[in-house]
Amino acid sequence: MFNGEYQYKVDEKGRVPLPPKFRRELREGMVLTRGLGEKCIAVYPAREWKRVSDKLAETPLTGAKLRRLTRLTHGSAFDASYDGQGRIKLPDALRTYAGIGDTAIVVGANARIELWSDEGWKTEQAAAEEQASQIIESGV
Hints:
The chain is α+β, with helices and mostly antiparallel strands. The chain has a single domain (5-137), classed as Transcriptional regulator MraZ domain (Chemotaxis protein chec, 3-Layer(aba) Sandwich), CATH 3.40.1550. The chain has five helices and eight strands. The strands form two sheets. A six-stranded antiparallel β-sheet has the order 1-7-8-4-3-5. The chain is globular.
């Protein structure tokens, strides 16, 4: 499980460190892809990505919808691993999609990690805080 919020500089080669406590769960590899519905990079441990992929394959969507969703998730997915200093290379396409410049906000999101631009994360936090009581009251 991934928890917490961390701010890191992105180096000139597009690498960003991951918190040391996150690295244990990512030793077997990870997959980076577009956050669905949000402008962030989703980082899945390899085992969790397999589970997500299998669930997507079992989803009873119509042919065209399923193909479109599969293209979106798998077409923007990249296998990754961290280097000796605990950094991962952010693919340019994903970095551009998320609007990540020289700073990345690394957020634990339960079974995955999310990487946000500073501005994107502030916007997401404001929206979440505004909706939190409504979500709780709805029984979720």
